[in-house]
Specification:
Shape: globular
Radius of gyration: 19 Å
Distance between the termini: 38 Å
Number of helices: 3
Order of helices and strands: HEEEHEEHEEEEEE
CATH topology: Lipovitellin-phosvitin complex, beta-sheet shell regions
Strand order of the largest sheet: 5-4-3-2-1-11-10-9-8-7-6
Helix content: under 10%
Strand content: over 45%
CATH architecture: Roll
CATH class: Mainly Beta
Structural class: mainly beta
């Protein structure tokens, strides 16, 4: 159970995004394919390594509209499927269909997270699958630009919360994409730190560690996000009454986002 809980925590890392600068609401559908591998190494305590690898495919509809001081973001989970190893049970994934999430883009195009619109348990269980769905996207990008961004995202509350701090660097270059004759290719790489606590059936757990990642995605001149690919890896340590010595956990994740409409 501890293994599965930590998998879901590792997914809960947000990023910034900006919509096409058209002034009118825009609606776009995306497919998000993710593969996550996790290894727990209790060998220092005489245990054997535990590994878990699973994949999910999600289809989402995103609507972005003008709002006071920025733009609102509304995401609906159209469907989500996992393979036989996915720790979220299939009935929960099926019941997540129609779950809605809301976020807000400030005037600089930075997304302030995505939160479930309702208190639906199914929506909360799949919220982590939307993490890292949107990269930093804005209208007017040109080849040769560079910038960086620092974020701190907290999931959960009180003694059951994890904070991920991330510094991401971006660079643009000319690019080609099947969905647009003109596009800008954006490359990104980041470093992160993870810290927090989590409630488990074996007692409270303290989580800390670091991570790295990189990716490439495409943006049209008017700011339309055309999808991309990312890879990230985290090296974590967990401590608690159930682990007299720090428990190393390695998490590797790949994400592919494809624009459908």
């Amino acid at each position: 159970m501890l293994l599965r809980l930590l998998v879901l925590s590792a997914l809960s890392v947000g990023a910034g995004a900006a919509p096409p600068d058209t002034g009118a609401p825009t609606t776009v559908r995306y497919r998000v394919d993710q593969t996550l591998s996790q290894e727990v190494d209790p060998s220092a305590m005489g245990g054997t390594r535990q590994t878990l690898t699973f994949t999910t495919s999600s289809f989402v509809t995103v609507t972005i509209a003008d709002s006071a001081g920025g733009r609102s973001v509304h995401v609906v989970m159209d469907s989500v499927k996992g393979d036989s190893a996915t720790p979220i049970p299939k009935p929960v994934l099926d019941s997540a269909k129609g779950s809605a999430f809301h976020g807000f883009l400030d005037g600089q195009g930075k997304l302030d997270g995505l939160e479930p619109v309702s208190e639906s348990g199914a929506g909360a269980r799949v919220q982590g699958l939307l993490a890292d769905f949107f990269p930093w996207v804005r209208a007017g990008l040109k080849a040769g630009q560079r910038w960086s961004d620092t974020t701190a995202r907290k999931t959960g509350q009180g003694t059951d919360s994890v904070t991920v701090r991330r510094v991401t660097r971006y660079a643009t270059a000319p690019g080609r994409h099947p969905k647009a004759r003109q596009a800008v290719q954006v490359t990104s790489d980041f470093t992160s730190s993870v810290g927090g606590t989590q409630t488990t059936p074996s007692g409270p757990a303290k989580i800390e560690g670091t991570g790295t990642g990189s990716g490439t995605y495409y943006v049209t001149p008017d700011g339309r996000y055309l999808g991309g690919d990312w890879r990230q890896r985290s090296e974590l340590k967990v401590t608690g009454s159930f682990a007299p010595k720090p428990l190393p956990i390695t998490v590797a994740q790949t994400i592919k986002v494809t624009v459908l409409t």
